[in-house]
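Supplementary material to the annual report.
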Amino acid sequence: MTEGYNFAYLDEQTKRMIRRALLKAVAIPGHQVPFGSREMPLPYGWGTGGIQVTASILGTNDVLKVIDQGADDTTNAVSIRRFFARTADVATTTHTADATVIQTRHRIPEKTLRDNQIIVYQVPQPEPLYRLESSRVETRRMHGLADYGLMHVKLYEDVARFGQISISYDYPVLVNQRYLMSPSPIPAFDNPKMDRMPALQLFGAGREKRIYAIPPWTAVRSLDFDDHPFRAINASEPCGLCGATDSYLDEVVIDDRGGRLFVCSDTDHCAERRAAGHIGKDGFAEAAE
Amino acid sequence: MTAVPNGHDGLITARGLYLSFGAIPALVDVDIDLWPGEVLAVVGESGSGKTTLLNVLSGRVAPDAGAVLYTDPEGEQHDVHTMPAPALRTLHRSDWGFVHQDPKQNLRMNVSAGGNVGERLMARGARHYGTIRAEAIDWLTQVEIDADRVDDLPRTFSGGMLQRLQIARTLVTHPRLVFMDEPTGGLDVSVQARLLDLIRTLVARLGIAAVLVTHDIAVARLLAHRIAVMQRGRVVETGLTDQVLDDPQHAYTQLLVSSVLQV
Ligand SMILES: Nc1ncnc2c1ncn2[C@@H]1O[C@H](COP(=O)(O)OP(=O)(O)O)[C@@H](O)[C@H]1O
Ligand SMILES: [Mg+2]
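Predicted assembly:
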């Protein structure tokens, strides 16, 4: 562990303050709790909110996984993982099943999370109404009174204009039948995973200084109309590498002749399937381990 | 605080309203009764306290003294200024409506006409797109806006259309009581006449009670069952519209009526 830093970088005073905010957030599912966000050795947009939450809940026995867009090996994921390996000396993993804490940007792992795991979301904009109502005072009042007609107006406008609800990321949800919540910019495909998830879900927005949470097994409903029900949209073909038909796929350009490939965005999920012998049409057999 | 009589079955019963802005008394000792299905016009010159009265009656501004009681459809009375904020909010988006002089204050200018009309339905829990849209189109037609404008943004609408759109947006939930502040102000005379006719027809057909603020005696005569004349924050005369206008008792009312006749 790097000398000169407190465990997990943040001082104990700050961690206690963040834990108090977390406890309040868990007690009021989906409600945004303000917290005194600290300067972190990373710029906003790099997950400073998520990092502060992770720093406040990590213990020495935790095993940390960090993903960015589903992948463990992107710059952002690698640097956050390395940050905690150095400042907290915790074990890290890329295997969803082995992690006790998963910090994420833009995805929920495909593997169903368990009740002894915590998922920490990095949140750029915690206010689901901010595009529709610029006044913070007004959005706070709307949350206070559960006055969410405006969000439905946005959905109405979508259906009127496009024939369907056209939100593919950050699809608004109602938590515990009470608070309207931004799930962060995860694909709408991941929304159903939030509903009655056994794992604790924590959300940190560093620049906006807000924390919110979904306790285990809480009802999370994606807003919709009776005659235009929520649908998790995905690519229509299976993963080219592992053949999965039920995972979220990224479209990857593979050459300069417009060739493209659909592959699992969750790299751990894809690798695990390939290791188990699943092969997609563009894949190749893995060497037996 | 003046006691409000019990067992009163007026829709709105206000007693002893007082409100000053610094040294300016905007409301002085105002009593108002409004009965179900009744249209009450509040007339008076600019600055006499009409808008302030409307804001206090509708719970948007608290008086320094006095009380406003609202009787709900179950016959239960609520003090508008002491009831919990969520309950007042619910009233405003279901039982009540508010029509502003400037429709842009109420409309969402970047939301289609249909979305504007549908908002109150959705706020009340409507979750069937087809039904919401059908009702929006029905209401656009009722306020004489072409059904094929349903997806257009209000900024492409004329002043008169904007005001009609605001009325559709307000009436779509069939409120029992509508507060209107100079609803025809700022419009061309020819447009005003058509709008007044529309308001009169809708209010009568739906049996809506209304408090209508206007500085225009002719508007009051056309729309109101009863009239309250305000001068410097006081209601100086009140009664049936025809009686008050044909045989004004108070000197200020006489002045108001005669200045209309001179026009
Ligand atoms: N928010 C306010 N602050 C200070 N003075 C106000 C305010 N609102 C109204 N007034 C004053 O109260 C009086 C009544 O105003 P208002 O109710 O708007 O009259 P009306 O609608 O009849 O023109 C006027 O003298 C006005 O200047
Ligand atoms: Mg006024």
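The longest helix of chain A spans residues 12-27.
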